[in-house]
Amino acid sequence: MKRAVKISCLLAMTALFLSVWILSFARYAKQVFAGVALESHALTVKSFYKLDAGWPKFPEYFTGQVFGVAVNPVAGIVYVAQRGDSIPKVLMFTEDGYFLHSWNTTTIEMPHGIFVANASSPYSSVWVTDVGNGKYGHTVKQYTYSGKLLQILGTPGIPGSDLYPLQFDQPAEVFVDSKGDIYIVDGDGGLNNRLVKLSQALEVVWVRGEKGSGPSQFYIPHSVTVDAEERVWVADRGNKRIQAFEAASGQWIGSWDSCFTDDAPYSVRLTSDNKYFIVAQLNINRVSFLTAPQVGDIGKCHIVDAIQMADDVKPHLVGVNSKTASIYVAEIGAQQAQKFVPFN
């Protein structure tokens, strides 16, 4: 009888110990899981994109600092612009990550922005902005798809003031819309701080900007894009904001700054469905996704997703494949371009 009581007491004590241990473990596990969930939420809110770790197949072809990337979706070609001494300034890869070839880029000194114009043909032209101070710098150049120089905008090697629209000083980026109109942000630290619109015939349609922080003023305009609603969006880097203009008239629509208190916007591109802006923020190593507003008042900016990169990656400019929805990020610090693909 006494033996049975002892066994019963021992079992009860064991059960109590196990219950306490399980509850403690569950509480600890919940804390750990919550911590992971919180950290994951801080890195990406909706997880729109994931890294394609297999792109490119041969990253050793990156031999300099990667500043820009552009995509021809019809041909499935990715153009990467890089800087450095005695290296090719433009590399060509396939959408699958295979290296094709490099350009003979003796006419490019320091590429900044790169863009495939009217990418409805495998032979679409490629535009490059050159911020170099040598005999080929301060220009915007048009090339064939394979790297043959077609034309130069601006006077090579001579920086200009904003008194003459086609004389540039460190033009940061170029965007060509579906009608062939050309938008150039001129002033990656140079004399000019302006947005220039040219017709397909290279006639000046309008010019906006001067150095300052007011509406239609810029301090280092760094990237430009046009949305489906015929609005022009400019990453006004020095002022830590994005400004919007009407494409037809150049009239100022509004600006966003509340999303950029931590770091300035370096790029502005649209996802292939035109629902979100893709904004690279170099100093905090982040690519953010902002809701693109509908017609009317642009309201306030809203960040809905973000890709947090490792320290010192320094994402600079972004390219988008309108066919596959993939995005490519030019990374100065990591000296590479990376591909991100949609989760769905």
From TrEMBL:
Pfam families: NHL. Keywords: Glycoprotein, Repeat, Signal. The keyword Transmembrane does not apply. NHL repeats lie at residues 209-248. The keyword Calcium does not apply. It comes from the Eukaryota. InterPro entries: 6-blade_b-propeller_TolB-like, NHL_repeat. This is NHL repeat-containing protein 3. It comes from Callorhinchus milii. The lineage of its organism: Eukaryota, Metazoa, Chordata, Craniata, Vertebrata.
